[in-house]
Amino acid sequence: MARSVGAEIDEAPGQHKCSLIASESALQGSITQLRLGDLHISKVSANAHALELKLGGAARRDAHVLIAFQCKGTSTLVNDGLSLELRAGEMLALSIRQELRIVNPSNVQQHFIWFEKPRQANRMMEGVVSHRRFGPAPMQRLAFSFVERLFNEPGLCNPESGQFFAQAMIKLLELALKETAVAKPQVEPNRPSREMVLQFVERNLRDPKLSPDTISRALGWSKRTIYRAFKGGNGESLNGYLWRRRIEQCAQELRGPSDLSITGIAYSFGFSSCPHFSRLFKQQMGASPLQYRRGAY
């Protein structure tokens, strides 16, 4: 039975009310928030639940804009009476005037970007009546990666950098929306694409359980369908791509200012065996991790 587990939050300017309702006896998960200037960014990772947002007072005069990134699972969003489904790898731009309900029937991971001042999103939402939903594309994937990096390195966000990152985020979203507006419609919109698989992999490179099995479960398609969607590149297998991208990210960390040990960097990108990591790293980069970090190759 559903039950409310979150207190309602009232904000004086618009009297907004946000409620979190668990669909199971115990809500398991986390909600992390970042503030970038006038942008509020949230990361939700939880089991089955529902979120309800109601706008009141002066807030109804101007539609508020919410950007939703679906990282894992499938959600149903009911925006002012209009029901929309959002699947893993998709992004949704919403214009909200009264209320929004987000129903997550199973485990999900989502990112939300809320514009405190609706006018900031006017140019970005030009021509969008109530919503715009779109699947994976290059600019969208870049926006995904940018948000995820901010959560992985919260120290990047401070009063000095916040406004700069906010402007960068808005510009990325503008470009992603323009990209969608000119994109050719897919012949099979419900069929997973290579872009969807690549995007999921990029967001979850640090997950030690990342594999064709977990990708299949998260995107809701069989492994055969996932393999078929990934096929068409340079002949590289999906597993080969996973390990190559992990090695490339580890190499970037090794040459950067990271204070982590080589083992710590390897483990942070899903490796569980140091010999396995060292062997793959040398095969791909032509030097051992230690030599690469020192630049002695």
TrEMBL record:
The keyword DNA-binding applies. InterPro entries: AraC-bd_2, Homeodomain-like_sf, HTH_AraC, Tscrpt_reg_AraC-type_HTH. Pfam families: AraC_binding_2, HTH_18. Keywords: DNA-binding, Transcription, Transcription regulation. GO terms for molecular function: DNA-binding transcription factor activity; sequence-specific DNA binding. Gene3D superfamilies: Homeodomain-like. The keyword Cell wall biogenesis/degradation does not apply. Residues 195-295 form the HTH araC/xylS-type domain. This is Transcriptional activator feaR.
